[in-house]
Amino acid sequence: MHRRHFPRALALLALVATVATAGAPGATAESPTAATTQLRATIDTILADTRLAGAQASVVVVDTSTGQTLYDRNGDRRLVPASNTKLLTSTAALELLGPGHRFSTDVRTSGKRRGALLAGNLYLRGGGDPTMLAADYEALAAQVAAGGVRVVTGNLVADDTRYDSTRLGPDWTWDDEPYYYAAQVSALTVAPDTDYDAGTVIVHAAPADRAGAPPVVTTTPATGYVRVDNRAQTVSDGETSISIEREHGSNTVVMTGQIAVGDEPASDWVTVWEPTGYAADVFRAALHRHGVRVLGQTVLGQPTPARARPLARHDSMSLGELMTPFLKLSNNGHAEVLTKEIGRVLSGSGTWTAGVTAISEYVADTGMDTGRLRQRDGSGLSRRNLIPAAEFVDLLSAVRAEPWFATWYAALPIAGRPERFVGGTLRSRMAGTPAAGNVHAKTGSLTGVSGLSGYVTSADGRLLAFSILLNNYLTASVKSLEDQIAVALAGFREGGASKARVAPPAVPETPRTPEGVECSWVKPITC
Predict the structure, then answer these.
(1) Membrane-spanning residues where (predicted)?
(2) Which among 64, 259, 318, 358 could bridge 240 via Cys, Cβ 3.0 to 4.6 Å?
């Protein structure tokens, strides 16, 4: 593909701006103004930090109204973007599926009714909804019961065939499997709470009332699908140190460590093995509570017959609304479901390959040069994703012309805003600086990988698009360097060279980020 150096939607605007400023001294990239020169020196100084010694940095900043590049360091270098990959997935989903797109989960049967008896199978058909809660399955069961069904002679069939049976993303590392950010993907699943980490269960350990006894274990939602091997102990005093980890290939969760008498319960999110079975277990229990007995077995992965008639249905929130938990909390599961849903809707194939292909076609149309990048999954958990900062900035510039841009822009994390569903993964960053409440950007974190790409309004009111990708560093975190760059951009004023800074602006240090996790205080983890 041929590279479009500036997205087509803004090309005319850039031309007009260029003509308007042609007479202004220092207004071109070849002859930058004094303020731009000082901004570049400031960013150079930030990137000279010893924490980046031997590392790789790709940074690009563009004025979205004119297309002028204010800064470019290795902008064409392909680096691992981590969760910045979600910028491609989320924009493609809004364009290709539409902000009003919803996921439907329904209950159907092809059996015959004889009063309260249903002679045949009951089909629970998944539509990919990553926000299905136990309460939603409860509501489906209530609808079935309200229809008069009391006994089902056949099986409960869990239909997850909207997507393929590949559960884990391409290139994901095996040791991430038990953790919430690497949950298995299915068209039929359960989220334990309104963070909507589908395919996970929250395991709680409360201290017993006496030392020496095992902690009291509960799960959210309550389910028999997960078995807890409780090897932990309640102690009279000391620091609580509970470890909760699922064994590979099973739904046995091993709990070790200790918890002190009187301490608050310890909790952790754990992925399940085969989320389709998890959803079926939660739904079957809900049917039982509503007085509906299923005499047959639970069967996974069979399609619902075309002639099956509906008994109950649940529709998800709209895709526009889903953007908030997806982007604010950097939800990997949402990204992967959207990738498969895009593939299913556009080509009839609910696979990663079909979804990524469609995403690539969309972002190429915005002006990204897809010949210069590689996308392997929807979330960025794969380390084989490789995207240059310049390509991110092209996308960020182009999507401003989309009708859904306002929804998407509002869903991006906002620096220094402490509310979880406003600040998201930036809620603890850049507080008390000109970037607070200003920077709307997507974070990215893997061990040795950090990224921040989005928008900042400069001190003279111009919307700047920027992308910062940092790879192969050995220190615990380099996020404070990203923050310094964002703060410098927020304070930038063209024509205000005397006020520009060469020394990096001071910002609070950002906490350490574990492998695969956005450091956002979203989960009870040590960041």
Answers:
(1) none
(2) 259
Phi/psi at 505 (nearest 5 deg)? Answer: -70, 145
For residue 93, the surrounding DSSP H or E stretch is helix 86-96
Catalytic residues: 83, 86, 330
Strand-by-strand arrangement of the 104-109 sheet: 298-300, 156-159, 122-125, 104-109, 309-315
Contact 280, 134 (CB under 8 A): no
List, for residues 264-316, the tens digit of each pLDDT value. 999 999 999 999 999 999 999 999 999 999 999 999 999 999 999 999 999 99
Cβ neighbours of residue 310 closer than 8 Å, sequence gap 6 or more = 106, 107, 108
pLDDT at 497 over 80: no
Query: How far apart, in whole angstroms, are the C-alpha atoms of residue 229 and residue 256?
Result: 9
User: Can you list the alpha helix ranges (DSSP code H) found in 307-388?
Assistant: 319-328, 332-347, 352-366
State the Cα–Cα distance between residues 133 and 149, nearest whole angstrom. 23
pTM of structure:
0.90
DSSP code string of 398-440: HGGGSTTHHHHHHHS-BTT--SHHHHGGGTTSSTTSTTTTT-E
Q: With contact defined as beta carbons under 8 Å apart, do 443 and 453 qualify?
A: no
Q: Are 440 and 430 in contact (CB under 8 A)?
A: no
Res. 178: pLDDT tops 90: yes
How many of the other CB atoms lie within 10 Å of CB of 77? 16
CB 85 within 8 A of CB 385: yes
| pLDDT over 60 at 395, yes or no | yes
Give the chain's radius of gyration (CA, Å): 25
Which residues neighbour 83 within 8 Å (Cβ) at sequence distance 6 or greater? 330, 332, 379, 380, 442, 443, 444, 445, 451, 518
Q: Which residues contact 294 (CB under 8 A, 6 or more apart)?
A: 122, 152, 154, 155, 156, 284, 287
Residues 418, 389: contact at Cβ < 8 Å? no
Q: What are phi and psi of 202, to 5 degrees?
A: -95, 125
pLDDT at 315: 98
- Cα–Cα distance for residue pair 301/161, rounded to 1 Å: 6
Q: Which two tokens stand for residue 224?
A: 């028999």
User: Is the pLDDT at 377 greater than 80, yes or no?
Assistant: yes
Contact predicate 141/480, CB 8 Å: no
Distance, C-alpha 264 to centroid of its chain: 29
Q: How far apart are the first and last CA of the chain?
A: 41
| Residue 131 zone, left/alpha/beta (φ > 0; ψ -120 to 50; rest) | alpha
Per the listing, tokens 């309550």 go with 222
Q: Is it true that the peptide bond before 32 is cis, omega within 30 degrees of 0?
A: no
| Cα dihedral 434, 439, 443, 448 sign | negative
- 112 forms beta bridges with 119
Residue 118's pLDDT band (cuts 50, 70, 90): very high
* DSSP β-bridge partners for residue 117: 114, 151
